[in-house]
Specification:
This protein has a single domain, classed as Dihydrofolate Reductase, subunit A (3-Layer(aba) Sandwich). 30% of the residues lie in helices and 25% in strands. It is built from 11 helices and 19 strands. The strands form 5 sheets. It has a 9-stranded mixed β-sheet, with helices on both faces. Strands 1-2-16 form a 3-stranded antiparallel β-sheet, with no helix packed on it. Helix 6 links the parallel strand 11 and strand 12. The radius of gyration is 20 Å and the shape is globular.
Length: 340
Amino acid sequence: MNHSYQLLSFYVTSGVARGWVEVKVVGMHSLLSSLSTTTTSSEIGDFLDHVYSHSNFPAQSTSSTTEQADLLAYAGSNQRPFVTLTYAQSLDGKIAGMDGQQLRLSGNQSMKMTHLSVPSTAIFAFGPGAHVWFPFLLCSLRARHDGIMVGIGTVLNDDPQLTARNISITVPLANQPQPIVLDTALRTPVDCKLIRNFQNHAGKQPWLICARSAMTLQRRQELQAAGARVIPITNGMNACMRKAKEGLDLEKVLEVCKLNGINRLMVEGGAAIISSILNQVSDNPILNILIVTVSPYMVGDGIGIKSSNIDSLSLLRHLETKILGLDAVFAYTTSSANDG
């Protein structure tokens, strides 16, 4: 059965059990309405903690000596980062509109899970090397990773910031995840939010990973002058990525990320990268955790995930499903997630 239709079937079944009563037309989309479900920040945090407890990677970065030791052990035994793939899709399996048009698919509670950490209290320490540690009711997905990766299509269509946010406090720049863009031919605009945030000291210097054979020296110099870090790599022969629009060998990309200090990588899209990672699960898996948010919108014409390798999808092991507002969030792991 097609992966999207498996999610659709489970979503509708869960919805009926939870009181969804009718299908409403909203603009040009259809929306399955609910009697309402509200999930607290603590419950969302517990859901993510449970999901990451099934991997050999620390659920979040804290001052815990044990978790720091686990992090060092993982980092020392692997040639690439721990990878979380996460994306939102419509009920009919679309992640974007026609021509890559950005769609707001996730509801407020699902957005909170991805973006917004909620601290309970703050413990202040003073002196050399001191820091402020916040016990979290909810440590968001982005806050659990030290790098966030997207493709150039996402940058051109969505102009994202790729930052983690907290309620009531400003996340220190040093604690923000590293923004990483797969940009084969260096098409990133010099005035995009990623670069402007860096210029305004509101974000880390973005990394643009490109194909050495596709870039021009002039374009590289323009982006470097604007503030981006350009990282050229030599294309390999990875079968999954040769057909992808990004045109980069994902294994080499991940090796470069690891060599540059990224141990926990969150991949958010777009469609070509997502499809490549999912299609590779059965051959040489690079995925540890998959989190898919399914919204109740029916998009119609648009861009979806192309999963040509059915064997790969069959190796995904379902961990848990969480209903957040009107959204259903599905979490999976792979057989390699616990192998180290």
